Amino acid sequence: MERTHNTEPVVVVDKLWSIFGEGDKAFAVHQDLDLTVYRGEMLSIVGGSGTGKTVLLRQILGLLHPGKGTVTTLGRPAAELCQEGAAARVGMLFQHGALYSAFNVLENIGFALREQGTLPDAMVDEAAMIKLQMVGLKPEHAMRMPADLSGGMVKRVALARALIMDPPLLLLDEPTAGLDPTSSDEFCALLRDLHAELGLTVIMVTHDLDTLFALSSRVAVLAEKRVLVTGTPREVAQFQHPFIETFFQGERGRRAMAPAPVGEH
Ligand SMILES: Nc1ncnc2c1ncn2[C@@H]1O[C@H](COP(=O)(O)OP(=O)(O)OP(=O)(O)O)[C@@H](O)[C@H]1O
């Protein structure tokens, strides 16, 4: 399969140790974990429950600090992102990223830009309206409250909020979790289109094989506290490891890897 990324690293994780607890209770979630993500990739991170996929996203975003090793995001130590306001450089769609329930859709989308305080409210609203339409919502949705949105619409608003500052890098934690199959397919199509249109680099955590195959140019498998293997979905699926066999070679994995019937994409 042709590689869709170039060779400019956007994220470089070098011999990372992620450590929680102190003294006798300290434990490492990652040990000497290496991962490089290149500009324009859509990289999926997969691994068993508790292998540290979300922790790795948080390290890349600079919300956690390496016990040992380094995380370089967009050419700088990841920790510096947070100090200067990460939203401008990295968009993050959290797994349980609920919207602010007291704010309407437009206020949610424009939140980071308004907080920055550099633009008048009318311009923030205008920018938020552009993002609202970019994620496939209509202007009449702008004044709705989060409680009045479907699950698919909540994800779209959260995505628009993550993109408000035009970040070059987007992190997604389980982007299709909780969506029905149709909404999930629609959200994948949206992500694929935005990735291409905006020239984004995307790193996502997913358990969902359909999402993985629909979107990933490359997959990184987390196991044994490190990145065990990277490659295209089909390359990784051939790797001999108990997690990979269970994950890719079950019924759902075989279905996801089956060639699409003629006429389907
Ligand atoms: N702030 C924290 N303090 C202590 N332990 C933590 C903290 N954050 C994560 N951990 C631990 O790190 C490990 C990895 O957590 P993480 O949420 O990254 O797993 P995951 O691979 O995303 O799992 P899942 O697929 O179940 O969401 C878990 O054992 C978790 O308890």
UniProtKB/TrEMBL annotation:
It comes from the Bacteria. Pfam families: ABC_tran (PF00005). SUPFAM superfamilies: P-loop containing nucleoside triphosphate hydrolases (SSF52540). The keyword NAD does not apply. InterPro entries: AAA+_ATPase (IPR003593), ABC_transporter-like_ATP-bd (IPR003439), P-loop_NTPase (IPR027417). Keywords: ATP-binding, Cell membrane, Membrane, Nucleotide-binding, Transport. GO terms for molecular function: ATP binding. Residues 11-249 form the ABC transporter domain. Transmembrane segments: none annotated. This is ABC transporter ATP-binding protein.
